[in-house]
Structures are given as C-alpha cells and as structure tokens.
Amino acid sequence: MSALLEIKNIETYYDLIYAIRGASLSVEEGSITAILGNNGAGKSTILKTVMGLIDNQPDKGTIEFMGERIDGMDTDKIVRKGITLVPEGREVFEELTIRENLMMGAYTRTDKKNIDDDFDRVFNYFPILKERINQWAGTMSGGEQQMLAIGRALMSRPKLLFLDEPSLGLSPLLVKEIFEIIRTINSEGVTILLVEQNAKMALGVSKTGLILESGRFVMKGNSCDLLEDKDVQEFYLGVKSETSAKGYQRWKRKKAWR
Amino acid sequence: MVEFLQMVLSGIAVGSSYALMGLGMVLIYKASEVPNFVQGEMALLPVFISFMLLTSYNVPYYIAFPATLIFAFLLGCFLEFGILRRAKEPNVLGLIIITIGMEMILLGFVSWKFGADQRAMPFPISSYDSIIIGDIFISTLDMLTLVVALVIMLSMFLFFRFSKTGVAMKATQMNENAAALMGIKTKQIRMVAWGISSMVGCVAGLLMAPILVEPYMMWDPMLKGFSGAVVGGMTSLPGAVFGAYIVGIVEHLFGGYVSLEFKSVVAFVIIVIVLCIKPSGLFARHYVKKV
Question: Measured by CB atoms within 10 angstroms of the end CB, which terminus of chain B is less buried, N or C?
C-alpha cells in the first residue's frame, strides 16, 4: 500500500503560538484514518495546515500528496490536486441555495456531464437535499447543513477527503447516520482522514487511529487495538478503571505522554 | 401635478447615475469590506481618458467608449491588486484611509494632466434634445441614462444569479475560507469585483460627461450613490439601487418645492432618518446563524 498523503515533521505557528510541534502522519490510499485529541490539541490545525489555509505555514516540515510536495501552495491549487476539507462547523454558504452550494463544490471541474451524475450521487446519499434544492442553505437545520457540507465536498470528486468534526452538535441518531455514509463514501474509493472528538464513533469506523496531544502525535495503532487500550478508554471513552467504595474516585491515573 | 411628475421623472433620471455609483460601492464593500471613497475617481480618470481620445485623437465613439470601459476595469483591478492588497493586516480604518489616499492621488493626477477647466465631452446624443411624453419633458440623455442603468442592473442580476463566476463571487463574499476550500481563487475574485465596480462607475461618469467634464464632477454623484447604498443597507445590490432612486427623487422634490439651495443636503438628511429608524439599512438581510 502506498501512502497517499505523507506529512513529515510539520510545525505550525499561529503568530507566536506554537500549535503543531512536529507531527508526522501518513494516510494510506483507500483507508479511513482518525485523529483524536482534546480541545486545543491541534487536530483542526493539522488539516488547515495541509489545506494551506494558514498563511505561511507550515513553518517546518514537508507535506506530500501522491509523491508531490504541496506545502506552501495556495489552497485552490491544493483543492485542484484532489484534496477537500469539510470544515469544522459546516461553513456552508448561507445565502446560496443548496443547488448553488453544490455547484460551488464542483467549481474546479469542467466536465459538465459528470457533474450532473455527481448531483444524483449526492442526492442519493442525502435525499433531504433534493427536497430542499432551491432553499437557502442557512435556513436548514444543523444536521442538514452538515450533510450539505459533505455533499459539497464530494462534488469536487476528491481523492482524499478531510472531515473536521462531522458529529459536532448533532443528535446521536444523526451522528450514526453520518458515519454510515462516511463508510459508504470510503467504500466507493475515497480516502478519508477524520478528526473527531467522538472517539468511539471515530475508532469504530476507521482503520488506523492516532492520538494528538499538545501538537504532537503520542499514539498510533489499529483502531480496534486503540479501543481496547486502557489509557484511551480512560481518557477518551469515559471508562472508569477504578471504582471507589465511597462512590467517587480517590485518585486518578495520571497519564501524560509528554 | 405635471410639475410633480416632471420632478419625479428628473429625479429618477438623476437617480440612475447615483444608482450606478451605489452599485459600484456595494460591490466593493461586499468584496473588501471597505466603503470605497475612490469610487468617483476610479470613474473620473477613464472619463478623462475617453475625453482625450475623443477630442485630441479623434477616435470614433465605438472605439473610444469600449476602450474606456476596459481601461476602467484594469484600473479597478490595479487599485486592488497593486495597492489595497499590499496592506498588511489592515483594519477598516486603515483601508478607508487608503481609499481616500488613492482618491486624492487620482484627483490630483487628473487635475494636473488635464486641467480643471469646465468642459463638455462630445457625445453621440445631444444633451439638449428631449422627448415629450404627454406634458412631461425628458432629455434624451436622461432617457439614455435610465435605459443604460436598467440594462446594467439587469445584467448584473443575471450575472450573480446564473453565472458560475457570479455565484463564486457571492460565495467568496459570504465565507472566504470556505470559498477557498472549493478551489475558488478568492484573491482573483476580489480583484475582478473591483474591476467590475470600476466599470459600472465609469458608465455613470460617461453618461454625465456630455454635460460637464471637470475633475470634481464625480464627487457629488459618488456621495449620493454612497448615501443611496447606506440607505439600502450597504450589502444589498437592489437596496443600493432603491436607495439611490429615493435619494434622487426626494432631492428633486425638495429642490422644487422647498429650497433649491439645500437640495444637495437632502441626501444626508435621508441617511440620518433611515439610520435612526432602521440602523442596518432598509434592505440589509440579517441572518441568524444556527449552531
């Protein structure tokens, strides 16, 4: 298996804030990879760095996509190479209709005929979008907007799809549905890199999992192994390893990978 | 009654050129989030170029006017690309000052190069002819202004509604990061917005030039267009058009019935009233963001 995306030792700064402190990661073609971590660990920052959304970053390190350096490129060029990000918090174009939103997703493409097919494909995943095709995106519920954001990203026919917290603010039922679709999308040949807080869901769907803490990857493994791991269970899945007789935990296993 | 209709009609005719200036300002406000005080001079320089081509070089109209519009487009693009984009992490105040600076440079350049004499530009239609409808007179030039303004508005509507670039422009204005993630070249889109805005303003300038060409000719229409745009909410194209027509009509009615001397002040009185009653402007769409 060849690595589709190869990130080597990147370091990213937000002005003076040292956000990513040398992270390396490789995403295999056809796989689903999940990145887990606390708030502020730098999960989203990694995705934004790869997409070139943060000016003049990464400060150090290289990013290769299909064997080609893409660090320092403009975002629109990176998108044209075949990477798409579904941003955190959806970020649909609120005052454009669903149709226009999806049209913007296909902005980089010129093959008119296939675009129509892709419209059908997206409507097949998310039938609700078809019902509301001429409605403003901003008037839809959060879940529908998330579906639209994913659909919009698929319209560019990406080889590699980044999903930044697709479960944010959705009901458990809807989260399940979204993850079902993520699996389907992957089975149709799109490689997926997933960033999530919902560790159980993310590890359930992914093949490889990585844990990010304070801008460094501290753990990597098969997702099913990670699900079994004591530390991961304690810190991300909420499984208590000790129970106290008095009903509260008297000491907590401290685990820091730093 | 005839007098009233006559004034309303003149107001509409004058409002058309205000509307074009207002449209230009709204386009730029949406793209770069700055009230563009160079809007008038962005139109002024091309008008003088056109004047020069027509009078000094005897270029025919059908070449001079398109050439002027292209020049206006390039000028708009250059101001964005060459000057505004170079500002490092500017705030709104800084941007406003930059536009005022550009305005002064262009104004100074035009005064220096072409002189401040008051002249009239040759034009295919005489500004003295008029059409009589019933008892109402309307000059052919006013009529032309009205028609051209309507055509431009319609084509802009179609552009933003149906063309891919137009929708991409709207998308960029709504959410720049997300637009970049769609593969839209957001910087280029912003530059084109300046170009289009400059071109729209230039049309207004060309339509005013047969009456008077002088370096300060665009100052008043620019302020009136700006008032119209503010009345309309500054972010809405139809709002700017509507506001500009209101300013034009009220101004004429005030001039006719109340006081000719204070005619120009009315626009600002309208702004004050509208901002007191509905601070976001008449047409601003306030969008409640869902989580």
Answer: N
Contact B185 A76 (CB under 8 A): yes
CB contact under 8 A, A87 and B168: no
Q: For residue B163, is it within any domain?
A: yes
The whole-model pTM stands at: 0.84
Nearest residue of B to residue A76 by CA position? B183
Any A CB within 8 A of B164 CB: yes
Residue B55 counted as domain residue: yes
Q: Is the pLDDT of residue A185 over 70?
A: yes
B88 part of contact set with chain A, CB < 8 Å: no
Which of A90, A104, A112 is best to mutate for the B interface (most B CBs within 10 A)? A104
For this complex, say whether ipTM is above 0.85: no
Two structure tokens written together for A79: 């998108």
CB atoms within 10 A of CB B162: 10
If chain B, 291 residues long, is cut into consecutive pieces of 10 residues, what is the mean pLDDT of each piece? 85 90 89 86 90 87 90 92 85 88 91 84 79 81 88 90 88 86 88 92 89 86 88 84 90 85 82 82 56 32
Looking at residues A97-101, what average pLDDT do you find?
Answer: 88
Is position B99 within any domain? yes
Q: Output the pLDDT for position B200.
A: 92
List of domains in chain A: 1-82+193-258 (3.40.50.300)
* Residue appearing with tokens 């998308």: B171
Question: Contact A94/B167, CB-based, under 8 Å?
Answer: no
Is A76–B184 a contact, with Cβ atoms under 8 angstroms apart? Answer: yes
According to DSSP, residue A120 is labeled H
In terms of DSSP H, where are the helices of chain A?
A: 43-51, 75-81, 98-105, 112-125, 127-131, 142-154, 172-187, 199-205, 223-228, 230-236
Residue A85 sits at φ, ψ, to 5 deg, of: -115, 130
Candidates B168, B162, B191; CA nearest to B180 is B168
Residue B32: give the domain boundaries.
Answer: 2-217
Give chain B's domain count.
Answer: 1
B90-98: long-range pairs with CB below 8 Å, 24+: B92/B33, B92/B34, B95/B32, B95/B33, B95/B34, B96/B34, B96/B35, B96/B37, B98/B34
